[in-house]
Amino acid sequence: MTNQPKQQWGSRLGVILAVSGSAVGLGNFLRFPGNAAENGGGAFMIPYFLALLLLGIPIGWAEWTMGRYGGRKGFHSAPAILGIFAKGAIGRYLGVFGVLIPLGVYFYYVLIETWCLYFVLQYFSPALGIGIDATAPIEDQVKVTGDFFTQMTGAAENGVLFGQPNGGGVHSIVWTFLVVAAINIFFVFRGLSKGIEAVCKAAMPIMAILGIIILIRVLTLGTPDPAKPDQSVIDGLGYLWNPQLDKLTDFKTWLAASGQIFFSLSVGFGVIINYASYMKKKDDVVLSGLTASATNEFFEVALGGLITVTASIVFVGVAVTQAGQGGTMSLGFKTLPMVFAQMPGGWIFGGSFFLILFLAAITSSLSMLQPTKAFVEESLGVDRTRSTAIVLGWGLIGNFFVMWFSKDLVALDTIDFWVGTFFILVVAGVQIVAFGWVFGIDKGLAEAHEGSNMRIPAVFGFIMKYVSPTFLLIVVIGFCINNAPSYVENLFADSEAAADARKTWVLLLATIAALATLVAVGAKRWRAQGLDLDGERGIEEGN
Amino acid sequence: MLCDTDLTAVGWVFMLGSIGAVGTLVFYCYKRILTHPENDEPDLPGGLGP
Questions:
Q1: Cβ-nearest to B15 among A11, A241, A453
Q2: Which of B8, B27, B48 to mutate to test the interface with A (most CBs of A within 10 A)?
Q3: Which of A452, A124, A426, A424 lies closest to A287 in space, CA to CA?
Q4: For residue A446, what are the CA distances in angstroms to A66, A229, A283, A443, A464?
Q5: Which of A1, A161, A368, B1 has its CA 20 to 30 A from that of B27?
Q6: Cβ atoms of residues A68 and A277 within 8 Å
C-alpha cells in the first residue's frame, strides 16, 4: 500500500447513493421497458422479481460483505479481495475480470454518455437541433434520426469521426467526448467523498425529480391526436403491462428477466466490492445493499417502466416502437427523439430526459474508473496522482480505439458482449461460489451481520449457497446457447466487421495481460508487506 | 406482438402490483436507514489502508 491517508465514505447515505448511481444507468430507462414489452409484458415481472430475490439481492449482499471484509485487510480491488475469499492465486487471477469489466465497459460507456450530453446540447441550444420535422411522414422522421445517429456515432466508416467527408474536420462529438472524459477524471481524482459521493448525492435526487416531472407529463398526455385513438396513454401502458402469460413457458422470457436484473444491479461488475471496501468495520452492509438494490428497482420499474415506451406508443405508434425497442440504442437515440419532436414543449422534456440519461451515465462511469484506480494504487504502490494519470491514459486508449473503429459500432458491440455481459456472469459466479463454498456460508453471513441494521433472513443462507449458483449456472448456459455462437462465428468470418472484432480482442487481451501482470507485481508486494493475501488468517488474527 | 394494447384489468394489476412492490421496498429501506443512527465509531485497527 502507499502512505496516503485511508479513504472512506463521508456517510452511509453517500455509499448507498454511490452504489445506486453506479447501478442506475441507461438500461433502467431504455433496456428494461423494451425487454419487458418483448418478453410477456406484465408477465415478465414474475421471473423478473424471482431473479431479484434469488440472484440479484443475494449476490449483492455477498459482494458488499466481501468488499468490506477485504477493506479491513487493507485491500480495495477485486483481484486482491477474491484472492482472500477464494484463498489463493486462482481467485486473485480470476479477480482480474473484476477490474477488466469496469475498465473495459468504460472504454465504450463514456462514449454513450457523450451521446447523451450531445443530445442535451442539441435540445437546449437554439443554434443546434436534430432536424426532425414533426409534420413529415414518419418514414422521413425515421430516416432523419437514423442519419443523425449514424453521423454522431461514426457508424458509417472507421475513423470518420476524426476526418469528416468533404474536409469537414473532426466531428464535434469528439470535442464533447473530451469534455465528458475530463469531467470523469476530475471527479475520480477528487476521491471518494469529495468526488464520487458528492456527484451521486447531487445527481440521484435531480434524476428522481426530473424523472417524476417527465412521468407526470407523459401520464397526462391523454390522446394527443384524436384521429389516432389507439395512440393514447392507456394504450401505451397496456402495450407494456398487459401480461402475456403464455410467455412464461418460454425459457427466453426467464433468461431475459434474469439478465435484466443481473446487469441492472451491477452485481459482478467489480464496483460494489470496491466501493464496500472503503466502509468501516461496523458499517451496515445488509440494509445498505438492499437499499441500493431497491433504489435501482424504483428507477427501473416505476420510472423506466412508465415513461419511454408509453410516450413512444402515444406519439409514434406500435409499429415504430416495436422497431426501436429491440435495442437500447435504437429506442433511446432514434425513436425517442421523434417522440419529443411531436410532444408539445418537447425540447424541454427531450433535453431533460437526456439530461437524466447523462446523469445516470456519469454516476455509472465514475464507478467504472474507481476500481481500476484502486487496483493500480495497491498493486504498484503509487499515489493518487499517478494512479489517476495511469487510469486516464488507459481509459483514453480504449475510448479512442472504440471511437476510431466505429463502423457499425463493431468494437463497441464486441466489448459490450464479452466484457459488459459475459464476463460479468463469470465474476458473479466466482464471487458467490467463493463466498458460499470456499469462505463458508455461515462465516460469510456472520461477517455480513457485523454492524448490520437488519438480519438477512435465514433462508438466504440456503439460497446463497445452493440456489443462486445453480440459477446463475442456468443463466450462463442459456445465455451462451442463445448468444455466444453467433458472436464466435462472426469473430472468425471473412469480413471487415470480423477484422474489427478481432482487433478489439487484441485490445482486450492486452488489457487482460497488463492487469494480470499487475496482480503478479502486487502479490509480491503484499506478501513482502506481510498482508494476508491468501485469506489464511481471520480478522481477529491480524492482517 | 401484443394481442391487445388497451390496458386491461389484469394489466392494471401487474402494473400497480410491480410499482407498489418496488415503491414499498424503497420506502421501507429508506425509513430504516433514516431511523437507524449511523455508526460513527472511529474505524478499528484492521486494514492497513491504502
A1: A241
A2: B48
A3: A452
A4: 12, 58, 14, 5, 14
A5: A368
A6: yes
How far is residue A357's CA from residue A365's CA, in Å, rounded to a whole number? 12
Task: Give A439 to chain B, closest Cα distance, Å.
Answer: 19
Q: Which of A32, A245, A298 to mutate to test the interface with B (most CBs of B within 10 A)?
A: A298
Count CA atoms closer than 13 A to A449's CA, side-chain side: 12
What is the distance in angstroms between the Cα of A154 and the nearest Cα belonging to chain B?
32
Rounded Cα distance between A34 and A48, Å, is: 14
A381 contacts A394 by C-beta, under 8 angstroms: no
Classify burial at A361, counting beta carbons within 10 Å of its beta carbon; exposed 0-12, middle 13-18, buried 19 or more: buried
Interatomic CA distance for residues A500 and A409, integer angstroms: 10
Q: Given pLDDT bands bounded at 50, 70 and 90, which one contains residue B42?
A: low
- For residue A169, report the phi and psi dihedrals to the nearest 5 degrees: 75, -160
Burial A29-49 (b: 16+ CB within 10 A, else e): bbbbbbbbbbbbbbbbbbbbb
Taking an 8 Å cut-off on Cβ atoms, the answer to whether B33 and A13 are in contact is yes
Of residues B40 and A495, which shows the higher confidence score?
A: A495
pLDDT grade, residue A320 (50/70/90)?
confident
Return the number of other C-beta atoms located less than 10 Å from residue A362's C-beta.
Answer: 24
User: Whole-angstrom Cα distance, residue A83 to residue A302?
Assistant: 39
Question: Phi first, then psi: what are they for A164, rounded to 5°?
Answer: -65, 150
Angle (nearest 5°) at CA A486 between A320 and A36: 40
Comparing CB atoms, the residue among B17, B19, B47 nearest residue A74 is B47
Q: Tell if the CB–CB gap between A237 and B7 is shorter than 8 Å.
A: yes
Q: Which of residues 183-212 of A touch B (CB under 8 A)?
A: none
| A296: its cell numbers | 435501482
Please tell me the distance in Å from B11's CA to the nearest CA on chain A. 4
Beta carbons of A272 and A57 less than 8 angstroms apart: no
pLDDT in tens, A196-207: 999 999 999 999
In contact, A43 and A245? CB cutoff 8 Å: yes
Task: Report pLDDT for A487.
Answer: 83
Is A410 exposed, middle or buried, given 0-12, 13-18 or 19+ CB atoms closer than 10 A?
buried
* Residues 6 or more apart in contact with residue A108 via CB below 8 angstroms: A398, A399, A402, A411, A412, A415, A416, A420
Residue A37 touches partner B, C-beta closer than 8 Å = yes
Cross-strand bridge partners of residue A164: A169
Distance (Å) of CA A236 to CA A283, A298, B5 = 44, 20, 7
Q: What is the pLDDT of residues A426-479, one digit of tens each?
A: 999 999 999 999 999 999 999 999 999 999 999 999 999 999 999 999 988 988
pLDDT digits (tens, 9 = 90+) for A347-373: 999 999 999 999 999 999 999 999 999
